[in-house]
Write a structure and sequence with these properties.
Elements lengths: L8 H25 L4 H10 L1 H21 L3 H26 L14 H7 L6 H20 L7 H23 L3 H5 L9 H8 L1 H9 L12 H12 L15 E7 L12 E2 L5 H6 L5 E5 L7 H10 L12 H4 L10 H7 L3 E6 L8 H8 L3 E4 L17 H13 L5 E6 L19 E2 L3 H28 L6 E7 L7 H6 L11 E8 L7 E5 L4 H8 L6 H12 L2 E2 L4 E3 L2 E2 L5 H18 L5 H4 L2
Parallel strand pairs: 1-6, 1-8, 3-10, 4-5, 4-6
Antiparallel strand pairs: 2-7, 3-9, 8-9, 11-12, 12-13
């Protein structure tokens, strides 16, 4: 045995170093979860010491695994340490920007490294970049200076096997909420992931999410239950209120990146109204607010609601259905598939990387025939070479797509112009001055306000172009979520304790035929499909009639705030709860179940 496993003092010291490294790494991870408050980390360790110890041992085996794979023990361990440290930094920065921790499915965006570097530019200060460079240099120096400890092949093989088994067992223990995990005070909290990470520690929360489903199975789920729900809502009248045009209308969705009405922010004054067109027409066409399920990011979740009519309200906190579930499906009913069955051409337009949020894979599953992304828009207009494709260009491209079609078209446009970072000059020189803002945030806020003006100009252009489109056409425009501006900009405006305001974006309907001018109030994105069907007098499938019933009771369905016809709902009544129970059952069936509703409600 000693012939194959030659023990040495150097190897023993190396393994002890890796053991201590696991504890240091877990400490860093937890500090990232607690806003780098070292006192809070020690307080957490004193309360959840077994979670800290076991989590540190998990990191020890991660370090051992890399140490065994790469011939030099220290080199492999330091590479693993650096990779985990980068995860901690990403976790900390994401928490600070969007209020959400780092999830396993976020790592799927690594394949979009080039695009991610553009999106995250500005999130990391020059000082932070310098610190990371110094750290990497220090690690390289350590690799060069530390003893070259090499392990015989049989022992390396054993280390790989043992580490792999221990890591796998840990993930299964946490994901299955094993009695051993719960005995160490682990409690899965998927409905509040920020608490999940701060209470359980990064390693437990992160690994627990690896095996997380989108939603739990509702009690009583069965084919009979879905059939009963389908029967209930199939019998409802189709209450379309719009004037049905003579021919099938084009339907255009515009989901505008990080767009909201900045003039709603109190304490700030503007040299001119950035949304002159929107404010001018909002009383002469259906308009209101969209209640976003997200703040500062996760665009795909708003898009998911708008296209499918399924709500993030029922899904576990932090879920991203596009990445966790839809990519594994062959089809999912949506407004796209409904219109496609009615003879529509179905087109998507997104002037950015097609692989973000797996859109290139998800869109065909939802029923899109065509997807135009940044790579097909080589000559697109940008205000600067480093800027995103402008909203004006995106709108012009969308109008062109409608004009070349001789069939009714559903066109879904997702813009990028207003995406973070809000760097002065990125979209040309700022044209609006904002007073009342602290000097350190003035350029940032004025840049964002300038960007919204550019979007307003693009909508004014679209309004004129609608008059020249021969086929009846209805447009639904909304912002996906509020921008990830510096938190103190919202704090100064007094919005910290107002979840409704921090989730309301502008919603506007336009058409080249009469769709009325009534206010639509505040709506969740899941109701956009049925609402546009209603305004244009189109027949609604039973599923949309279910959504219409819920919309009448709870027009704003959001984890942070529930909005009824007369304001915030403090508590659901029996009728509202029954509707949501039916809705949840259908949503589970379509996403996690047998999809009985696909044939019964569509």
């Amino acid at each position: 045995m000693r012939l194959f496993f030659k023990p040495s003092k150097r190897l023993g010291v190396a393994l002890l170093s890796l053991f201590l490294g696991g504890f240091i790494l877990n400490f860093i991870m937890q500090a990232a979860s607690l806003n780098m408050d070292i006192g809070s980390v020690f307080a957490w360790i004193s309360q959840y010491y077994w979670l800290y110890i076991s989590g540190s041992i998990f990191f020890f085996f991660v370090l051992v695994l890399f140490a065994a794979i790469i011939p030099n023990v220290y080199s492999g361990a330091l590479i693993a340490f650096l990779a985990c440290f980068i995860l901690a930094v990403a976790h900390f920065k994401k928490l600070g920007t969007t209020g959400e921790p780092l999830f396993p499915w976020d790592l799927l965006q690594v394949k979009n490294a080039k695009g991610m570097s553009k999106i995250t530019k500005g999130m990391i200060s020059p000082l932070e970049v310098a610190v990371v460079i110094i750290l990497i240099a220090a690690l390289v120096y350590l690799i060069y200076k530390l003893p070259k400890v090499k392990v015989q092949l049989p022992l390396r093989f054993t280390m790989v096997i043992v580490s792999g088994i221990m890591i796998s067992c840990f993930i299964q223990m946490v994901g299955g909420q094993n009695v051993l995990a719960t005995s160490m005070k682990y409690q899965s909290i998927p409905w509040n992931q920020k608490v999940n990470y701060s209470q359980n520690g990064f390693v437990y929360a992160f690994t627990g999410n690896l095996l997380q489903d989108l939603m739990d199975k509702p009690e009583g789920y069965s084919q009979e239950a879905i059939t009963a729900i389908a029967k209930k809502y199939s019998g409802l009248p189709d209450n379309g209120t719009g004037n049905a045009p003579a021919e099938q209308p084009n339907i255009m969705f515009i989901m505008d990146e990080a767009f909201f009405d900045p003039t709603r922010l109190p304490t700030y004054t503007f040299s001119e109204d950035p949304l002159q067109f929107i404010h001018q027409v909002q009383d002469s066409t259906p308009s209101g607010y969209m209640l976003s399920p997200e703040f500062g990011g996760n665009t795909a979740n708003i898009e998911f609601e708008a296209l499918t009519g399924l709500s993030m309200y029922f899904l576990k906190d932090g879920s991203i259905p596009y990445q966790q579930r839809l990519v594994k499906m062959s089809s999912l009913p949506s407004i796209v598939s409904i219109l496609k069955e009615r003879g529509y051409q179905t087109k998507a337009l997104h002037p950015f990387d097609e692989t973000f949020y797996n859109r290139n894979r998800v869109y065909p599953i939802l029923g899109f025939d065509q997807f135009t992304s940044e790579k097909e828009l080589q000559n697109a207009d940008r205000f600067t070479s480093n800027g995103y494709i402008s909203d004006m260009f995106a709108v012009k491209e969308a109008v062109s797509e409608l004009n070349v079609s001789d069939k009714p078209t559903f066109l879904h446009l997702v813009t990028m112009q207003n995406h973070f970072p809000f760097t002065k000059g990125l979209n040309g020189p700022n044209t609006i001055t904002v007073d009342g803002v602290k000097p350190e945030y003035k350029d940032e806020l004025e840049t964002y306000v300038h960007d919204t003006k550019l979007t307003d100009d693009a909508l004014a252009y679209l309004s004129e172009e609608l008059k020249n489109i021969k086929r009846p056409t209805v447009v639904v425009f909304w912002g996906d979520h509020l921008p990830a501006l510096s938190a103190r900009i919202y704090t100064q405006a007094g919005w910290d304790d107002n979840p409704r305001l921090k989730h309301e974006t502008k919603l506007l309907y336009m058409a080249n035929f009469d769709i009325g001018k009534q206010s639509v109030g505040t709506l969740s994105p899941a109701w956009l499909g049925p609402t546009v069907f209603q305004l244009s007098g189109q027949k609604m499938p039973p599923y949309y009639r279910l959504l219409e019933k819920i919309k009448a009771e709870i027009p704003g369905l959001n984890k942070h705030v529930l909005i009824g016809s007369s304001g915030v709902i403090p508590e659901l009544n029996a009728k509202q709860q029954e509707l949501l129970d039916d809705y949840k059952m259908v949503e589970y069936d379509l996403l996690e179940g047998k999809q009985y509703a696909a044939n019964l409600l569509f």
